[in-house]
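DM from R.C. (forwarded with permission)

"hey, sorry to bug you on a friday — could you get me a structure for this? deadline for the figure draft is monday and I only need the backbone to look sensible"
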Amino acid sequence: MSRLRPLAVLLLAGLLGACSILPKSPVLSIYRLPASALPEQSAGPRSDWALRVNTPYSSQLLDSTRIAVLPPGDQLNVYQGVRWSDRAPLLLRDRLIAGFIDDGRIAAISSDANRLHADLELDSDLRVFHSEYQDGRPVARILLEVRLVQSGSLRILASRRFDISQTASDSSVAAVVNAFGQAGDQLTRELLDWTLARGQASRAP
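My reply, with the result:
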């Protein structure tokens, strides 16, 4: 029995040594989509209708937490070692909802997560949510095809394509993420004005 004990100690030491040389899991940097609060609007038309913002449809690549990049050569890729804090369509949906609430001109805002009653719905397809290189510089681009839909009948009242681009200050991932935030802010402002105008027109007698 005493002869087996040194052998066991040697085997245990060998196993511990083997564990120490195994590759370590890479440390991921998690980024939220930056956003600037929209100022509350006290002037201008205000709605008396409720709006539901649905999660945009997207491709399998974009419907993920990976941060996509289109480098020269048209081969879509992803930044290594970094992730969004949620899937891109959800990040964008929540950004739009937050901006609409900040603005305050639409009476009630909800999402498809809770399925509350709404008079109108924003339905959309997220075609582009990646950075791409233009003249050697990374540009954050968001392409969203939007439809304003009447709840219940599902009749399309209006549709529009929003194509927003924002050049990053440098090629770092942090700068690219910041450019995505600025593009999201611009998209929110433009989409809000369009939704309010089209929604008011659809409710006119």
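R.C.: lifesaver. Strands lie at 29-31, 50-53, 57-58, 68-70, 77-78, 82-84, 108-111, 120-134, 137-150, 155-167.
me: no worries. Residues 30-203 form a domain with the Rossmann fold fold (CATH 3.40.50.10610).
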